[in-house]
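Consider the following assembly input.
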Amino acid sequence: MNISRRHLLIGSSALFLLGNSNFSLAGNKRKKNLVIIMLRGGMDGLTAVPLKDDRYFKNSRPDIIVDNSKSISSDFSLHPKLKSFYNLWKNNEAAVVHATNIPYTGRSHFDGQNLMQSGGRVPYEIKTGWLGRGVELAGLESLSMSLPMPLLLRGSQNPDNYFPTKWSLPNDKIVNLIKSTYDNEIDIANTIERIRNRPISMMRRASGGRKAEKLAKVAGEQLSRRDGPRVAVFDVNGFDTHSAQGGSNGLHGTKLVQVDKIISNLKNSLGESFKDTLILTLTEFGRTLNQNGGNGTDHGYGSAILMAGGLIKTAQVHTDWPGLKNNNLFEGRDLNSTIDSRSIYCSAISTCFDLDFELVKRKVFWNEKLDDYSSKLFKV
Amino acid sequence: MKNSFFRKIAFGLHPDNDVPNDPQGWAINQVSKIPDYTWKGLIPNGSDQLKNYGSFIFNDRKILRKKYKNDPKQYKHEKKISKRKYGVDYFEGLEIAIRHDAALNGQLPVCHRFLHFWGNHFAISKKDHMHTFTTGPYHRETIGPALTGNFFDLLKASTLSWSMIHHLDNSQSIGPHSIRGQELLQRRGKVSTINENHARELLELHSVSPSCGYTQKDVINTSYLMTGWEHRYSKKYLECGPVKFNSKNHEPGAINILGKEYKQTGVSQAKMIYELLEDLANHPSTREFISWKLCRHFISDVPPKDAVKAVIKAWNESKGHLPSIHQAVIEQTWKYTNLEKKFLMPETWLLQIANLCDAKWPLSASDMEFDFKSISYHAEKMFKLTKELGHAPFRAEQPNGFPDTEAEWLSPELLIRRFGLVNIEKRNRLKIKTNNIKQIIVKNFDNSKEIFEKINFLPNDKLKMSLLLSSSWMLKV
């Protein structure tokens, strides 16, 4: 087995996959995939999905208004850099949940990124991730595409991982010899055997580069295999645009291009399986309504979830809009969150893993008060 | 024969080192000393680095962001120049070189193993730019010198350090009844709150651990007691001002923690925390938790109960004197050498390879010189190689530090990297020397016959070395 063409992957973005080797898909049961794109730094929902005609909005950020945005409803438009997303939208394969976030208002990246993954309310209290717990509940075997397992995926048994490196293994004969020194170390020996038995497709990939959007091609191919992974997680940094956030062409727009590419590459490489896939974004918080002195925005609260895939029910901006008047804002400065985003993630797990919503709510989210959006947002 | 002991308690033996006649004495003699540094190049000073850190973020936030608010491209460019100027992509690699040089080239390798343990116990996880500027000096200047004192001294040094205060957000806590809390209430109608992070980790990770049965109320009360301990917000260095007790933010009144009432008595508000830390340091749960953790680190994932008991006993008898505790750990590690095995963390394994095979690691002080204008590829190498192994030492993912059990370090990708790094027939990244493999084995392993049987038929020394360094005998000791 030649795996010398594996390439290094480090940097600002990464990809994680979860597999399902012991999950029975016998009969006609559809294999449904769930993809989470983590947007670290605090994605500004008001830049990705701006309001069309709202004087409070326009007055609050005169220098970073998004020009040339695409109208997607009577109230909202879409950032022009989200081109593929817009095409999916026209096809009823994309949707948005707006004015939503995890129930965290502390505005710290450190705590927020912990909570968006653990799904809890107290930073660092929970040592597993909501997706990991969901995977465990569904009896899936996990494969994470990372060196350290992201908190989001922790909590599942026997995690496998995939994270390309340019350090090449010795030839299989030597690897087998190495293994023979672990005869009394069954766990290590099994792990070596797992490496030796990897599908060749997982060995020769990642030549496309280190970025998440490139890895999306690998992820899509793996997800489209019937015996392949069921869950993929992307990790994208850089949404913390305190400065030069810009409108159509600023730093936030550049990050949205990356998200858009991940989604379009996933669509292309998933092929037919795109119709059985759900892609959701996840962030720690939104950003302030007002622009700051650096033409950026600061840490806020409510944000938006971008959703794509064939399992989307219809193109819509689902929201319980709180308004942007001063007394509608959270602490007089942030877009409020009127939907606990964990309700959306709980619904997504329930839909993709064919699990009862109440069961997921109980086992994954400690029976917190979450609402079932499955039939509103997804094809169930 | 117990030559494996030198790998269990330190980094093995270098080809130029003789096997010490009295291994236990060799190790015990070291732990009464403060970890030494042998690095011939720049060793950054902690307070300078804090200013450097402050200057970098000041320049970014207060100058560049405003100046280039309408020009994202130029902003990116200027930030890159600023990063070079302040060594943002340099110091982490330098700090790893200093740390590894001390472990391998100093006189106190055992001390450094303990320093690595305690640095991970009082972990500063990757946050902001701490891994660049401050975590290296924190290990060297805050943790290291405290290792010859009592556990209380160490707990105090770490808890009140800028690194830990900033890492766990204690500066964000304002007592609702404090002078400032009342001011804020009157002026803005806002009730002040506390940030529980530091208090929770102090109890959960650094001292008594959840097994002592503390409640959420204890956590909250610990936060109240800790209010006022914060880093000064400096005009010039922003949040990188030094740590100081700010009585204006301190929550007044008596506070009950773990069943004991901590009273405020006028000027000694600042000192309440010393009383709490002393109680936590001397709490039976702390003794048991950390003795177990030490044995788990050096002996095996499930350490023998009598070994843990012996360490607890030394802790009791010495009233938490760290050299005495470390001596007990050394004695128990000796006792269980070749009986209990421990899967080495990637960094420890890397250092052992460097030591056993006289590899070119870390890079030299002259390699690591930097002009603060260009890119330091050497610093990048120091950092990237450890990161690739999953163990860049100043970048723990969480405040609980790097994991310390085989199960947590065992994944296909992490193993591939171990085997890949020492696949020297393909590429010898560490410049591992293979000429005296026989001597290396005899000196550092107690099963040389078994090893020779396995490797001798291989056609060349490079392959033999690859197999040895990837084998169970090397990864588990």
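The mean pLDDT of chain B is 95. Ask yourself how this observation constrains the way the partners meet.
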